[in-house]
Specification:
The protein is 14% helix and 38% strand. It is mainly beta. The chain folds into three domains: 2-72, SH3 type barrels (Roll), CATH 2.30.30.40; 76-136, SH3 Domains (SH3 type barrels, Roll); 144-266, endopeptidase fold (from Nostoc punctiforme). A six-stranded antiparallel beta sheet has the order 17-22-18-19-20-21. Strands 6-5-4-1-7 form a five-stranded antiparallel beta sheet, with helices on one face. Helix 2 crosses helix 3. The longest helix is centred in the middle third of the chain and has 13 residues, at 144-156. The chain starts with a strand and ends with a strand.
């Protein structure tokens, strides 16, 4: 059985208990597979990037047919930190929903306005949001150089976002959430954890081969390399998304990380 995330953020928990550890966040419009119907309140699900956890059934639209159709139709993604969906194409209108960056929607052609786009939500409601807050879910073909630059710039757009264990929105994001969202927003699903996993597109390379946009792995941590010895990451120790350096002479050097790299991963390995 498939289901659609029907709230801005659907939290995935380690156990079927809201007091247990948050391990991930499923964003509005993302489709999940229900692996187990635990009880009236909880289901055990798997995301499109093969992450598994428990979530509240009430936060999902559980319907195989609708979920499959939504997968076909939801071809646009929110790129604004937070985007209000309004009943009418004017700022004075009432709000239908607020969506976080990475949420999926269906675009409805509406040639009457360049400022506003008519969209459909997963529950069938029709609303409007700013045209420049959304873009096509499928990224156009980019050269390797263009992709590397775009994925770094996407990661940098989260600078100063608070650290949140299991988070992956501008409200709060963790290390693997940052890297996986930077790649997802550029059309690539990578494993949502601080390790290289077989079956996903990131492959291990030597440190000597590292380039902008590649990933640095540490024990329990992941960062994105920016070039020139710099990397961006969401650090539990730093409490937010920040930039540090591998260069011992740089003021942003972190010895604890620079001396504990376990692997380097690349989409272009």
């Amino acid at each position: 059985m498939k289901a659609i995330a029907n709230e801005m953020i659907v939290t995935l928990y380690k156990e079927p208990d809201a007091a247990s550890e948050c391990i991930d966040e499923v964003l509005y419009g993302m489709v999940v597979d229900i692996l187990e119907d635990v009880n009236e309140t909880w289901v055990y699900v798997q995301t499109a990037y093969r992450y598994e956890g428990y979530c509240l059934k009430e936060q999902l639209l559980v319907d195989d047919k609708k979920a499959n159709q939504w997968n076909e139709d939801a071809k646009h993604i929110i790129i604004q930190n937070f985007a209000d969906v309004l009943k009418e194409p004017k700022i004075q209108s009432s709000k239908l929903a607020t969506l976080a960056r990475g949420s999926l929607i269906t675009m409805i052609e509406d040639p009457e306005s360049e400022e506003w786009s008519k969209i459909q939500l997963a529950d069938g409601k029709i609303g409007y949001t700013r045209t420049y807050w959304i873009r096509n879910r499928i990224v156009e073909n980019l050269s390797e150089e263009e992709f590397r630059e775009k994925v770094v710039q996407t990661a940098l757009s989260y600078l100063k976002t608070p650290y949140r264990w299991g988070g992956k929105t501008p409200l709060g994001i963790d290390c693997s959430g940052l890297c996986s969202m930077a790649y997802m927003l550029n059309g690539v699903y990578i494993y949502r954890d601080a390790q290289i996993v077989k079956g996903f597109p990131i492959k291990e390379i030597s440190f000597e081969q590292i380039q902008k946009g590649d990933l640095l792995y540490f024990p329990g941590h992941i960062a994105m390399y920016m070039g020139d010895g710099l990397y961006v990451h969401s650090s539990l120790g730093g409490n937010e998304v920040s930039i540090n350096s591998l260069d011992a002479n740089h003021p942003q050097y972190r010895k604890d990380l620079a001396t504990s790299i376990t692997a380097v991963g690349s989409l272009f390995g």
